[in-house]
## 1
Amino acid sequence: MHLIFTSLSATEGFLVALTRPLGRQRQPKTAQGGLVSMRTTTKKDLIDRIADQTGQRRTAVKRCVQCFLNNVISELSAGHRLEFRDFGVFEIRERAPRIAQNPKTLERVPVPAKKTVKFKLGRLMKDALESDNGHLHFSLITTGDDDDDD
């Protein structure tokens, strides 16, 4: 299951395209102990796919994707909340300090408070993940101005 987000241009709008799985395969376990087939998609895989879908040069797509990721990191590190309507919301949460236990020595170890990123699913993401067959099959194409906050 992979979502590919591509900004075509300010005048062409925003395209969300679903594509076939790509990347490396790994075998994580479910809560019941069974194996689940899951693929890992790298940034390079996404860049190649977006470049193919949009006809843009790979270097331009790479710059755009990296710029987007840099801005996400910058906003989150500044303590800001990021909202991508229908996709989801990223927020910074403070984890309280706690006492953990070293499993090898059973020694109690203090763990300091730390910041973490919480992601809350948006409506389209939630609907796609809860689909009956487990496959994501949708496209959202909005044309027009990209001046709003969506």
## 2
Amino acid sequence: MKPLVPGTDKVESDFNPFAYLQEQGQADAETAKDIPKDIRGDVYWAETSQGHKVKVWTPSEDTRKKYPRTWSYFCHGFTFGTHCLPPLGYSPFSADAVKIILADEHKLLPGQPENGFSWDATHNEEKSSGNSGQNPNPERAQLKAFLNSEAISPGCVVTWEDKEGNIEHSALLKDFNQARGARTPGGTILNSKNGSKELNQLHLSGVSATYAKGNPPLTRFKFWTCCMALNKEQASSGGGCSIS
């Protein structure tokens, strides 16, 4: 993604994206109950590295200072390394904008289903691990094989989408906890900014379960090549952005 030039390609001023989602009935219950009324920012057109325009939001200086870790950027702003991109950090909106960014700057990692993995491949992991008398979930086995392949590495982008294919959440792969040996969904650690919450280290199973129960439910996830704005070390350590 290219840097924003202040004052150019502005679409809308004095915009609160979280309140807008609440009005549309698309904010999760936890976010909707405590959205501050003083969040403000501007909507711009930003350009991908290929010159395609996508809608983004940049917080006002007051919002950035008051809510540096929570309400001043979205998950996509973290994932694509733009929320701290000078001179004017921004966050791409979900759905169409994210699809364009992925098409221009990332590639789907090989070895996974074309439509991604279902959250069913992760949510019963612990419960099913000892059920030798039951047939294994083939998608769970495919996911575990993928996680243990050479295709995936720290810094990869992970996206979650609804049944219409709209991408509403994204995160970065941080590392694998291999205390039990092979890589598993529960041991796959992500850097994820869930809604208005602070950026946190969460496992793939937990993030998938959270968004599968969201509004709308995001029941499929995919893995993509690393963010071009970040090197692997930056991506795996939290995006390379200083949030203070």
